[in-house]
Amino acid sequence: MIKAVILDMDGLLIDSEPLWEEAEVEVFNKVAVPLTSEMTKQTMGLRVDEVVQYWFSRFPWESPTQQEVQAEVVAKVIELVKLKGTSRNGVKELVEFFRGKNIPLAIASSSQMEIINAVLDKLAIRDSLSVICSAEHEPYGKPHPGVYITAAEKLEVQPEHCLAFEDSPNGVLSAKAAKMKCVAVPDEKMKDDKRFCIADLMINRLTEFDEEKYKTFL
Predict the structure, then answer these.
(1) Which CATH superfamily hosts domain 4-15+86-216?
(2) How confident is the model at residue 191 (pLDDT cuts 50, 70, 90)?
(3) Is 10 a catalytic residue?
(4) CA distances (Å), 5 to each of 51, 85, 168, in order?
(5) pTM of the prediction?
(6) Annotated catalytic residue within 10, 49, 121, 192
(7) What is the CATH number of domain 16-84?
């Protein structure tokens, strides 16, 4: 039985992956990392500090520091969210669907809290959420299950009674490692990734989730 729903954020609720791509390509190229939009797929779903570490290990630079690069990426993403962030189709309908069933909703995101806050303000769904968790406060980011386990604890619901929605392979791995049911909503460019096969359900867009699909989890 589903007693709580936990949502990823980037790429699922807001079309932010292009914004992350733009921010990362701009910032990393400043430190001579030859990053392209295609290459950003390698770190999709990771925390920003892990993204910086990933590229530093492959293309080390002398300055600025990794922390300064991380801060610049975060600032650029927030700027882009405010400027041109758009909600994914079906977000408000999905939120209302579960609110109508009195099922609490949470966010479990790899993004830092300041990015989460910018997105929630942009989408105007903060009041519909019972819990907001960032992997920023976990020892490890996704695909480690920590942020999902923390969200379940704050909801006071056992993980096996939680339904997660994810758009990235790392996110699906994280939710399943937390022993949750998981609906995968992959980006068109990622849907052939074999790691999505462990999801309990895969749909092309949020608008496809309906009463019939919900009943498969009861």
Answers:
(1) HAD superfamily/HAD-like (3.40.50.1000)
(2) confident
(3) yes
(4) 27, 23, 17
(5) 0.89
(6) 10
(7) 1.10.150.240
